[in-house]
Amino acid sequence: MSTLTKPNHIGRKISRIRELKDMKQEALAQALGTNQQAISAIENSETIDEEKLVEVAKALGVSVEAIKNFSEENMINYFNTFADNAFSNSQGTNFGNSNACTFNPLDKLLEAFEENKKLYERLLQAEKEKNEYLENSLKGK
C-alpha cells in the first residue's frame, strides 16, 4: 500500500483535475487570490476544509462532488464512453456522427460574395458623397 496513492487524498485529486484542465498552480492561485505556494500546500494536503474546497471547485470549474469522487479509473471510463459513441452510430460507419449539410457551401460562399459586393458599393458611394461635400465646402470659401 505504500506505493499506491491513498484513494481519498483530496489534494492529489485537486492536483490531477488541475492538470487535466491544463492549468498551472499559478493560474489556480490567481483565481483563488493566493500564491503558488498555498496551492502547493493544498495539493499536498490529505484533507481540506469544506469552505476552501468549494472555492477550489469553483476556480477549477467543477463541482465539489466531482473533486471528492474523482478517480483515474472513472476518468478513463468517462473518456471511453465518448470513444464508444463516436464509433457506433446508426449507419455502422467508423467515422463518428454523420452530419449532412442542409445547405450548399458554394451557395453560402456566393451569398457572402454578393454581400461584400453590396457593402463595397455602399462604401464607394459614401466616399463619393464625402468627396463631393468637401469639394463644395472648398468652393464656398
UniProtKB/TrEMBL annotation:
Question: Could you confirm whether the keyword DNA damage appears in this record?
Answer: no
For this protein, the record's CDD domains field holds:
HTH_XRE
Coiled-coil region list:
106-137
Q: Which residues form the HTH cro/C1-type domain?
A: 14-67
Q: What is this protein called?
A: XRE family transcriptional regulator
Top-level taxon of the source organism: Bacteria
**Molecular function GO terms recorded:** DNA binding
Is the keyword Ligase assigned to this protein? Answer: no
Q: Which UniProt keywords apply?
A: Coiled coil
